[in-house]
Design goal:
Distance between the termini: 70 Å
Strand order of the largest sheet: 1-2-5-4-3
Radius of gyration: 20 Å
Keywords: Signal
Shape: globular
Helix content: 25-40%
Number of strands: 5
Strand content: 35-45%
Largest sheet: 5 strands, antiparallel
């Protein structure tokens, strides 16, 4: 009985030491918040993709928005194979804040931005 308890405890420790296959990261955008398209990108989080891929997707999403209505336009199609959903808050005549979630299978890119209109 005691031997099986030790074996179970050892197995638990081994399983806890194995890294998770799903990796999530918060990417640095504070050094160049205006370089990704929108007026200010304030946060970028990725899961199962690199930060470089996330930044590239933010730029592509911005280009899609601008092509469909200018600075306050909306992107209603897939961007580089990702399905994106945008929620806007603090909307006034001169600016708005938005949170965008783009997904493709287990890959996910979430970015928040402020856009001056």
């Amino acid at each position: 009985m005691l031997r099986s308890a030790f074996a179970l405890a050892g197995l638990t420790l081994v399983l806890l030491a194995i890294p998770s296959t799903s990796s999530a990261a918060t990417c640095t955008v504070s050094k160049k918040p205006r370089a990704l398209g929108p007026t200010y990108v304030t946060r970028l989080t990725v899961a199962n993709v690199s930060c470089a891929t996330g930044k590239s997707l933010v730029r592509a999403y911005y280009r899609c928005r601008v092509a469909n209505g200018g600075a306050d336009g909306r992107c209603r199609k897939r961007v580089r194979g990702y399905s994106c959903r945008e929620r806007r808050t603090n909307v006034i005549s001169t600016q708005f804040d938005a949170a965008v979630t783009c997904r493709s299978g287990s890959r996910r890119v979430v970015h928040k931005y402020t856009q001056f209109t």
